[in-house]
Automatic annotation (TrEMBL):
ATP binds at K199, H219, G235, L236, S237, G238, T239, G240, K241, T242, T243, E285, R321, T446. Mn(2+) binds at K199, H219, D256. Pathway: Carbohydrate biosynthesis; gluconeogenesis. This is Phosphoenolpyruvate carboxykinase (ATP). It comes from the Bacteria. InterPro entries: PEP_carboxykinase_ATP (IPR001272), PEP_carboxykinase_C (IPR013035), PEP_carboxykinase_N (IPR008210). Its cofactor is Mn(2+). Pfam families: PEPCK_ATP (PF01293). One of its GO terms (cellular component) is cytosol. Substrate binds at R58, Y193, K199, R321. Its EC number is 4.1.1.49.
Amino acid sequence: MVDTNTKSISLNSLGIKNATIRYQLTSNELHQETLTKKQGVESSLGAIAVNTGEFTGRSPMDRFIVKDAITKDEVWWSKINLPFEEDKFDKLYDKVVDYLSEKEIFVRDSYACADENYKLNIRVINEYPWSNMFAYNMFLRPTEAELENFSPEWTVINAPGFMANADVDGTRQHNFAILNFSKKIALIGGTGYTGEIKKGIFSALNFILPMYKNTLPMHCSANVGAAGDTAIFFGLSGTGKTTLSTDPNRSLIGDDEHGWTAENTVFNFEGGCYAKVINLSQEQEPEIFAAIKKGAILENVIMDENGIVDFADTSITQNTRVSYPIYHIDNIQQPSIGKNPKNIFFLTADAFGVLPPISKLTPAQAAYHFISGYTAKVAGTEAGVTEPVPSFSACFGAPFMPLHPTRYAEMLSKKMKEAGVNVWLINTGWSGGKYGVGRRMPLKYTRAMITAVLNGDLGDYRYEDYHIHSVFGVAQPRTCPGVPTELLSPRATWNNDEAYYETAFKLSNAFRHNFKQFEEFANEEIRRGGPQRYAH
């Protein structure tokens, strides 16, 4: 990285006046600044631990897009994509830059998109040093030569200490994350949760790439095998996206955000990983555990007086996290680009316990399940509540998708057909009964199923080798190397057909109910990809 202050920059053009600008500090310097300002504590693993304050996760109801000439006819305005008035943005922006003026602030130039043809230069302006360290970890790091004539295209302004006045400023409450596509600004205030920084740029790319670059943006992880075959893993939080793509036998492209180009390459948007650490153990996830060292940032974890982290302690939040630069993982693809996508995995943690642990999808089913983006939430800590709740997030990333979900699904369908990709639905959730009755599918078996696919052991669909699920219509393999055969049939693991089908129909009805919002936009092929049977 470039040394501190080898280049002086001015932020006057942004309206930030007389600030003390700490430009392009190294990771070590930002680590030390955080300790000096008593904004974090060093853990026994060497990583710095911070508390993000009031917000320990994204606040989707406080994410807005400025409604203007660029966005008004293109964005899918909804509960997810909330409109913000242009003049309200300008007034709020002026307040935020006035707030940052005359302060010490941390500025970093970086970029997104590992493929040179799609590169997006970003300037990140932070109130706190650890937020700037997060930007160092998560975005791609320019060389000294690249910094010399660096011209930012997008600007992220991040002021956690600034509180909006909802009645005056047009926000819902005091925190906000607002995208302005005309001014190319992500404006974030009132929240210290760092995920808003990376997801702001991800959301921008989810508009820019399909609209202007004929590239499908994906909320997924990806890795590549020795033969050059790329695998893509879609999944919502808690389904195993980071865990399953971090494979000692394959090179990691990235763990969360990628683009799939017209040239049939897959590239990482980011320069780091942002992994959940709830119940993390060295035995189960050695690569991620080893990445937690100096240069990493732990968020909202509990430590003892010796700095030893209790990864099982969720007293602050279940969404405990670690951010680290991708080079903390030994086995990575450099640059973060893969070619020749061969297999796509849709990961779901089905707490109803009715979906097969692995099944093969037709193109129509793949599009349907992509639009649905199903996983399930478990009741968790509430006493006496054991009913799982279905959770649907279109394209496995609805909060970050400004366009209508069917636009992404149709792009995916086209790319899958052109590339001849196999698509698999992987249930990392429950087996032998729903949450509270059955048990979570052991990670070693899920890994064995994915390895079997990547090795070509499950082959093409043939009736002798696959059983068609009577409710969901998906093809479940009858055998799989390294996996007990009885686990492959969810119905067989229940030992109670009546209870199994009652629960399966309940979930299929939830799928159909959720899909009603998309039916008028989805073509006939996609509509036929859903559950085959359902309860009246």
